Amino acid sequence: MIFSSLKLNKDEPIYIQVENHIKESIEKGMLQKGSKLPSTREVSSFLNISRNSVVVAYENLEIDGIIKSSRGKGTFVTIEASKPKNEFNIDWGTRINSYGSICESMDILKTELPWEKNMISFKSIAPEENLFDIEEFKRAFLDVISLEGNKILNYGYAKGYKPLLEYLMDYMKSKGINTEGKDILVTNGFTEGFDIIINTLTEPGDVIICENPTHNTAIKIMKAHGLDIIGVPMNEDGIDTKSLEKALENTSPKFAYIIPSYHNPTGIVMNGEKRQEVLNIFQKHSIPVIEDGFNEELLYTSSPVPSLASFCTDGNGVVYVGSLSKILFPGLRLGWMFGDRDLINTLESVKRARTIHSSFIDQGIFYHYMKSGAFDKYVKKVRKHYKDKYEFTLKQVNKHIPYESITGEGGLHIFIKLKGINAREVLQKCYEKGVVFTPGDIFYTDGGGEDTFRIGFSRVSEEDIEKGIKVIGEVINSIKNL
Amino acid sequence: MIFSSLKLNKDEPIYIQVENHIKESIEKGMLQKGSKLPSTREVSSFLNISRNSVVVAYENLEIDGIIKSSRGKGTFVTIEASKPKNEFNIDWGTRINSYGSICESMDILKTELPWEKNMISFKSIAPEENLFDIEEFKRAFLDVISLEGNKILNYGYAKGYKPLLEYLMDYMKSKGINTEGKDILVTNGFTEGFDIIINTLTEPGDVIICENPTHNTAIKIMKAHGLDIIGVPMNEDGIDTKSLEKALENTSPKFAYIIPSYHNPTGIVMNGEKRQEVLNIFQKHSIPVIEDGFNEELLYTSSPVPSLASFCTDGNGVVYVGSLSKILFPGLRLGWMFGDRDLINTLESVKRARTIHSSFIDQGIFYHYMKSGAFDKYVKKVRKHYKDKYEFTLKQVNKHIPYESITGEGGLHIFIKLKGINAREVLQKCYEKGVVFTPGDIFYTDGGGEDTFRIGFSRVSEEDIEKGIKVIGEVINSIKNL
What we know:
- Two copies of one chain form a homodimer.
- By secondary structure, chain A is α/β, with parallel strands linked by helices.
- Chain A has three domains: 14-77, Orthogonal Bundle (Arc Repressor Mutant, subunit A); 114-129 and 377-481, Aspartate Aminotransferase, domain 1 (Alpha-Beta Complex), CATH 3.90.1150.10; 133-370, Type I PLP-dependent aspartate aminotransferase-like (Major domain) (Aspartate Aminotransferase, domain 2, 3-Layer(aba) Sandwich).
- In chain A, 43% of the residues lie in helices and 16% in strands.
- Chain A contains 17 helices and 19 strands.
- The first copy, chain A, has helices at residues 14-27, 40-47, 51-63, 98-105, 108-111, 134-148, 162-174, 189-201, 216-224, 241-250, 272-284, 308-311, 341-355, 360-371, 374-400, 423-432, 462-480, and strands spanning 36-37, 67-70, 74-77, 87-88, 120-121, 182-187, 207-212, 228-235, 238-239, 255-258, 289-292, 314-315, 318-323, 335-340, 405-407, 413-417, 435-436, 438-439, 452-456.
- In chain A, strands 6-14-13-11-10-7-8-9 form an eight-stranded mixed β-sheet, with helices on both faces.
- Chains A and B meet through strand 1, strand 4, helix 4, helix 6 and helix 8 of A and strand 1, strand 4, helix 4, helix 6 and helix 8 of B.
- Strand 12 (314-315) of chain A pairs parallel with strand 4 (87-88) of chain B.
- Chains A, B: Residues 12-80 form the HTH gntR-type domain.
- Chains A, B: It holds the Pfam family GntR.
- Chains A, B: This is GntR family transcriptional regulator.
- Chains A, B: GO terms for molecular function: catalytic activity; DNA binding; DNA-binding transcription factor activity; pyridoxal phosphate binding.
């Protein structure tokens, strides 16, 4: 009520005080152009004054062109509030801490060459959205609304939507993982899950061990948190176990971060024997493992390769971070963390302190979509689709690009190493010809990889794959022949 | 391919090597019960051996009961993979850092008395979900799907869904705020917005100034980040400006955190004059202000009280954190930050490093819901609804509770101070009688407020409000008369 702050005095006529109060309120910005004034009846009752005083005040203000009454609608302020000019400036740039600066300087969307219209872009490893079955998505939406009603739109629980949690637990079990003593926390994708773990388990200066190269977002998060990254070189079958053993002799990392399937960026799938070996090494040194379940669902061999978590038949040494974002509905930003029940219990509180919980309507849709069998059907379809695209891309690369080595066993991308040619030089020239890809150096923990790059083919048509790879090959050959 | 790791030797018969490889793969957990084996044709072609060797190997394994062929379906493993028992244990409890421990120890869902079925609970200040117009929500969902198609389900942008960003910018402008040089970032509610700001602008040990009492989630986030909180006492019209001036003489806070409307927990609405005064004080000391726009939309006076941000007519000293979570669809977890363009640009990168972006389908639904006019209609409806409930609650409190003072001018809650009676003692006794509320001490930055409590009435029926308040009054009287 705009008159709450009016203290009436006995020296001036009441109507003048009411008039002045409204003028001052406008001047102070408390009443704005278009604001509706309370009715004369309301004001007289609120201030306990005669209604006539208010009527007179309003009439005078209307004559002055300050307010205007409109029959049946009310009385409105007609002049612009001329708030005192108030220039309150803060030099925000000097106030950003190192975390903020690193997040910004390592934000590849701001630092890398942008994709432009009509370009052929091999940058993305997001799924091809045309494969999404939107009718099934709509059905899942209507199912959850009809089942849960309005309450799905109110606050939920930090851990996640209960039917989804149960579904995911069964899903982990179906991967041959022992779920006893374990729990699940739904997160906003892998990124939030990994960031929550880092926030909860590390201090600046702590050491983390991972593959080199590795997922650039993980590198960004670790660097932003001031962590010391030890990247262990990879062979064609995954992390080099001898180098790993050696690295562990000299350091005590807080944990290991490993991507066993369709490793980003190399595309390598670690075989089961190697997974067991790698897990044994970490276990021997008591280094917990954060397993990135990235694209595991795309594995299209006849027998699934068990996750690292499944080799940990008893015990809680592995935390599995799952996400379907590279396959299904990444726009929903849903993922999950699976691990030791007490640890998840703490992470749940951390999640609550960061985002309260992930969108419950999205979790509901996701659950109904998965449960209905639409997901199984969809996975079968996209495995075939991406496998064909992978084989087509590989053929084009073999035909056009003079590489030193190539890795990637399927999934959504392949990784190419050139013979002593700088991939950023290639990229710059390709960019001028309308073709872009991801330079490999952003995936390296030690500034290496300048002769590598990643080709993401998931969203590129076969026609464009052929054209684009040809351009890349021509550029490389032109540099070689200089 | 399960045979990738098989290196054939020349000493043993091929079929024996194939047999042993499958047995070993099962033993090592690389083939699980139910796994499908590749066809004999695939194996012979992959290993470049005669198909007959594979057929013999498969037959022998079937005789041993290890695999089973099913005509037209394929060959499957029938025995349980007996993975080596592997007990890999980590003592996670000792690995949680102080951030994680504080998030957990200040998680009121874990530390406070739980709500139980059939209890009357005044704990929540979430909106009454039965007021949500679910048909409009469905319509908004179908609108966004039909307009955007599958691409709304793929990755989006960290800053937010563009039409929503534009809508929110106009919305800020309609509040009389100068939007020049400003930008908006969509967040997962107030909580993420505030946490992102803290993450980006502070270091442990930094000082933040705020009202005392204040929003308990904000206190939790600040403490978890190791910040030093200076809580300034409040009067019945908001923060005490003399105490504020004094506090600023002795400290240089990184920023101020202020809740001008329906302050949580006191329910006080700062009037416009006071807002101008408070802003002037911070400006004089060059202390930027984080304004929590909490429940501003519920202000049901005839003339809106302008936000702190609107008094900053020029300059970038105020960051406004908006959220509709206490009014509309909190389960979606959507909010926004409005402030200096360069600052938002950095915060956008931080957001990308934390959750990539907020759910795009949710942002799309939200935008279509707001734009259609459904929001305006809804706000009018709930203002009336909550105003009536507020007045009813107030009447019951005045009738039954012997308080020292009471604050709260509407909104979704009121705040009560008793005369030297411990609110936790009252709570314990009320709990035994099936009534719960929020003890006030959790909102205090300095351990005070032991004689205060918050009554959230938004989700309680009038019948239960009457019953519940009566119980609280009786308990207080019984303690007084001891």
